[in-house]
């Protein structure tokens, strides 16, 4: 895949597409591979071409909390902030599936903001969308019970692939929700009893 796939996604100006092709580096990640981790300095801005990234917040005690997914057409507001402020990342970005992205050098961020209106719109829209994602994550943590959070996470994972199946272990789901595997197993059985899902080994089917 070439970065010319960006043009129909974002309505970037042809000159900007040329700049991305000239300066960007296409990178492929296998499912489960890290792009970013806490303490790591970010030197480039990732734009998702295919696949998806999972953004996780790591707590002091080592547990992690799922924040949001990035899908084709998205970039990470956290990486933008880290690039601008020259500070290390506070989140972990992991490929939810095999993923392809283009990495934009940080020095191009301000340059393209001055030159290309579509890039400015893309960056501002990214901040707004990720802010909305974070509000949803906070609302989920503060106001939703664990069974609701689990059900929403399973549905989100299924929607990434536009399929009825989710390929995740109980432990992976537990890690993303900052709970125990036993709790996830019990709640999945509850959802199965309600007729919402059917569970298999390392696979969940939405009914």
Outline the structure in words.
There is one protein chain. The protein is built from 8 helices and 10 strands. With 207 residues, it is of the alpha+beta class. It folds into 2 domains: 3-142, Jelly Rolls (Sandwich); 145-206, Orthogonal Bundle (Arc Repressor Mutant, subunit A). Strands 2-6-4-5 form a 4-stranded antiparallel sheet, sandwiched between helices. The longest helix has 27 residues, at 117-143. The radius of gyration is 18 Å and the shape is elongated. The chain starts with 5 loop residues before the first helix and ends with a strand. The model has no long low-confidence stretch (mean pLDDT 85).
Structural topology:
Blueprint lengths: L5 H5 L3 H10 L1 E5 L4 E3 L7 E7 L2 E6 L5 E7 L6 H9 L5 E5 L3 E7 L2 H8 L1 H27 L2 H16 L3 E2 L3 H8 L3 H13 L3 E4 L2 E4 L1
Antiparallel strand pairs: 1-7, 2-6, 3-7, 4-5, 4-6, 8-10, 9-10
Helix pairs in contact: 4-5, 6-8, 7-8
